[in-house]
Amino acid sequence: MVTAMTKLVKVIIDDREYDFPAGMNLVDAAKQVDVTIPVFCYHPKMKPVGMCRMCLVEVGNIQKDRATGEVLLDDSGNPQIRWMPKLQTACTMNVSDGLVLRSTSKAVDEARRNVVEFLLTSHPLDCPICDKGGECPLQNQTMEYGPGESRMNFEDKKHLDKHVPLGDLIFLDEERCIQCGRCVRFQAEVAGDDVLAFHERGRDLQIITVSDPGFDTYFSGNTTDICPVGALTTTDFRFGARPWEMNSVPTLCNHCPVGCNTSASTRLDRDFGGKTMIKRIMARQNEQVNEIWMCDKGRFGHHFTRSEDRLLQPMVRAAGGSLSRETWADAVAAAAKLLGDANGSVAVIAGPSATNEDLFTLKQLAAGVGSTRLGAWPPTHAGADLVAKVGVGKGTNLSNLGKGDAVLVIATDLEEEAPIWRLRVKTAHDRGAYVVVANARKTRMDDFADAVTMYQTGHAATAFADLRKQHPEVAERLINANNLVVFAGAEGLTLDGSRALMQACANFLIETNHVGRANNGLVGVFPGANAMGQHYLGFSPEATRDIIANPPKVLILAQADVVADDPAAAAWLSKVETVISLSLFDDEATRQAKVVLPVQSFAERDGSYTNGERRVQRFYTAQGPIGEAIPAWQAVARIAEKLGQGKARLSAAQVMNDIVAAIPAFAGCKYSDLAKVEAQFPQVGGDDLYYGGTSYKNTGGLGVQIASAADNGEAVALGDVKADAVKGDLIVVPTVRLYNRERVFQASEAQLMAARVAAPYVEINAEDAARLAIHDGDMVQVSAGAAQPVKVRAHVNGAAPKGTVLLPRNLQQTATALTIAAGTVTKV
Amino acid sequence: MGIISSKIGDLGVVTTTLDTAVNWARTGAMWPLLFGLACCAIEMMSTQASDYDLSRFGMELNRASPRQADLIIVAGRVTRKMAPVIRTLYDQMAAPRYVLAMGDCASCGGIYNNYAVVQGVDEIVPVDVYVAGCPPRPEQLIHGIMTLHERVRSERLKTWVSAEGVR
Amino acid sequence: MNILRGFATTFKHLLEEPITVQYPEQMRPFRERYKGRHHLRRYENGLEKCIGCALCAAACPADAIWVEAAENTDEQRFSPGERYAKTYEINMLRCIFCGYCEDACPTQAIQLGHEHQLSFTDRQDAIFTKDMLIDPTAIGVAGTPQQVEPGVYTRSIPDMENPR
């Protein structure tokens, strides 16, 4: 990173003089001043290896007098340059004072021509059927630098396997591979999942996977992006369309709080009724959010938008009791009548995929009928208000964390809940940041931690409060860190326990003065894409708890799949007189509703989300509409209009204008502001694919980060930590798996990711298992609290601490425990 | 239609003969409108010249007045500016009147996929026959006219009067 | 005198054969390189030459071609190599018969023939689907999809030559 402190050095590139910060890579430096040094193996996000030899350039040094330091001049008065006798690989050199670089010369051109010729000796003439054809760095650079014809004998081409599945999601074409190692290095260096390797050597070199199941990582899709040839292709997109046929639409991932910026490549498709369809999703560069990476859930989890379970028409329950199709006007009128007659006994529960616009219109509708009961779903994570106070400072970029900085990850399994944060914390760790992981159990994040502290299940807050006593050396490092970011989740905690933990984290940050600055503060690892938006727009999990305890007359469920999440939902839902469901899917709660309004998914509409770092980001319409579904905010606004609350807005942008006017936090978040883009480093956005591998161009905007209260200089007070704990012999802790059977990820078993979703299981400690006579692989019945018992397979694999069983949520159609509870496990 | 069919009744033999006679007359002297728009018009001219000689089909008379024409061959791309002219000409033609879209541009805009060109003349007038080609050879145009004749021959008395009026 | 010369010319032509081609009955021979309606060719063993690469669609100046590709397996093989055209459609009313598709085709699968009788009474009829475009198989040769021996048809472009 360039700061005021960085020393600048003078470098001459192609006879022009430039200043660069010392230590910058030569390829990066040339790229900054629009001089192309072609590369295959070098990638700006990874360490150079100098394997492909494509970046050979002429390099020299300006000669200086050793004694005086004066620049020596030749006869004609120009500085003397001592050229290195041979060409040098630019990617393994850094800029230094007096360095002279020539990116084009006869020798350089010839070197490049020969490199390309050798790379092509066994490269198949596959371009017509290759998925990379049209956006392929090798293709482009062969045209630009390669020889017109080859001197090699075509009979001698090596023929290798063209269809090697590395895993369920990625195929390898061994012939096309040019052995640059970008994929192997990405997995090892960036993702930290070292599952790819080179096998054999020389001309026999191949990429293989060394994990079982193959390519076992959540980041495999990224390797297809950075692959400079078409060797790695995704199962999802294989032969789906040609790159030039598709439009790239900026959109957002709606699966987790990271809020990865993505682009949807869309094309008309017969399989989707001739409408515009998302053919693939790729990462879009936003260095402050997801850099240029994204996880496989986001990349391949777009099929739910075209699920057969999608609701197509508005429905109203007739007097007889069955739902019947209605026009929008009638359905809206029915909903308005129900709300109007409710006498103010109205509540809203909004799911985590509801956008800011949806939430705002819901809030206004509720206010219009005299209600302020706005619940956030799922009611598991409290403390969003504390994040709003002491959240990470404006301008935070996890990529800036390094030596002298610290990261604390507590009560969350980042790998499963927010994979890109896990990846970015891991890279911060590699840069020297001190990473502490605190949890009641082992998590994947432990592999990338400097210190791991375990606490008793359910006691995160007290454990954290006692950190200074229990682990003084760890606490010391955190307190004295230049910058400290705390990722706090709610795993193994009740809602009150979650609040206590967040309060403890906030207290710690305030006491140690790690608030109100960039790269310092609290991040809540909340479920879903818009939990912070829920907070800013007045929705809270505590309100949900109140709604469950005191059922209203009319309950609006907005994209909240309550029955699939909460085993108690059927019971408390039956106490609600009327349910109005705004849903994507034909889910359980919808089947009990009086009025069913089909709404659009993120793919079909405009909208905005507020991510976990409080960055408001917008997404654009990518896919054609499904049935008569409309955006949720529109449906709500129509009901409000029917109730005489004012005219419905015409566009999401107008709704956002209303939000900006009504809610101070959203100041400066108009759509035009959210759409602003500025130059980012590295510049991987252009058509010059050689550098990043694919185009990560961001045309949709970088978003605007909401300032925390501490950023604004408001006093942030310490709060009381009221810890509670669940007691029992065995405590059932619901955990989160990234790949699960939630409707918003995978509506049917037949889909791509099905094989990667684990069968329902429960993890039990060996001692507990021995006591209960349970062996690894047995079917067991787990009951937790008042919830219906579920039958799952027991895993005795050392993952669960003693006295705790880990029961992942959403792995089966029936709901399992939503929050921690005492329970029993019996063998069946 | 109701009146005519009720009056005609079950005069099957008579109407069949009448159909044939009328359709023979219509196909035998289908005078085209003297009207060309672009490159296709050159091929249309050559169709009428001695090599292909449209007069073999009783079409030797290109009428410069729409009132005397039966067929309008839209030969060439129809610009937005030309569209109202074509509609006016079509409206001025006496029923029964026929439209033949000659070539890609008249049929669907062809390569002129832009704001200035009507994407198919069927946006403004009902088209009976579309002829592919860019431009179509005289043979193709004659084939199109044959297709139109085929269509006219299959017309029945009942279809002369439709809900929209006389066609 | 001149008037006689003029009449002589007229009389001379009166005795000549008429040059009019009696088109529907009589056909004028087409030039070898005349570009008419398209054909999708097959290999001798019945496999389709088209590999669904959509380069024809990319080359088409009129956007007349629509290709959707899918993946071959040895149990269900349509064409050599991994990819075949699941959907292949040409809108004859958009096509300008320029032959760019023929030029772009890496396997010489699409070729323009001499059939020219392309008049339609409905625009929908002008869309020629893959079934209409593809050549029938020779007598005794299986059509597609075929079940083939594994590992034989691995190349999409069978004759790999130096692209000189």
Provide the fold topology:
The complex is a heterotrimer of chains A (about 850), B (about 170) and C (about 160).
Chain A lengths: L7 E6 L2 E6 L4 H7 L23 E7 L18 E3 L4 E2 L9 E4 L3 H14 L17 H9 L18 E2 L4 E3 L9 H10 L4 E4 L6 E4 L11 H6 L5 E3 L12 E6 L8 E9 L5 E9 L12 H5 L14 E3 L5 E3 L2 H13 L5 E5 L5 H13 L5 E3 L7 H7 L15 E5 L3 H4 L1 H12 L3 E6 L11 E4 L5 H6 L1 H4 L1 H9 L3 E5 L6 H17 L9 E4 L6 H6 L4 H9 L4 E5 L3 H4 L3 H6 L3 E6 L4 H4 L3 E4 L8 E4 L4 E5 L12 H11 L9 H11 L8 H4 L29 E2 L24 E6 L25 E4 L1 H6 L7 E6 L5 E6 L8 E5 L12 E7 L1
Parallel strand pairs in A: 1-6, 17-18, 17-24, 19-20, 19-22, 20-21, 22-23, 24-25, 25-26, 30-34, 31-33
Antiparallel strand pairs in A: 1-2, 3-4, 3-5, 3-6, 7-8, 8-11, 9-10, 12-13, 13-14, 15-16, 15-26, 27-28, 28-29, 30-35, 31-34, 32-33, 32-35
Chain B lengths: L1 H7 L3 H17 L10 H10 L22 E5 L7 H10 L5 E5 H6 L20 E3 L6 H16 L3 H4 E2 L2 E2 L1
Parallel strand pairs in B: 1-2, 2-3
Antiparallel strand pairs in B: 4-5
Helix pairs in contact in B: 3-6
Chain C lengths: L1 H14 L22 E3 L14 H5 L5 E7 L11 E9 L8 H5 L5 E3 L6 E2 L6 E2 L1 H4 L31
Antiparallel strand pairs in C: 1-4, 2-3, 3-6
Give a written overview of the molecule.
The complex is a heterotrimer of chains A (828), B (167) and C (164). Chain A is α/β, with parallel strands linked by helices and 828 residues long. Chain A contains 24 helices and 35 strands. In chain A, strand 17 (346-350), helix 8 (356-368) and strand 18 (374-376) form a beta-alpha-beta unit. Chain A starts with 7 loop residues before the first strand and ends with a strand. The model of chain A has no long low-confidence stretch (mean pLDDT 91). Chain B is mainly alpha-helical and 167 residues long. Chain B contains seven helices and five strands; from the N terminus they run H-H-H-E-H-E-H-E-H-H-E-E. Chain B has a three-stranded parallel beta sheet. A two-stranded antiparallel ribbon of chain B has the order 4-5. The longest helix of chain B has 17 residues, at 12-28. Chain C is of the alpha+beta class. Chain C has four helices and six strands. The N and C termini of chain C lie far apart (68 Å). The mean pLDDT of chain C is 90. Chains in contact: A-C, B-C. Chains B and C meet through helix 5, strand 3 and helix 6 of B and strand 5 of C. Strand 3 (129-131) of chain B pairs antiparallel with strand 5 (119-120) of chain C.
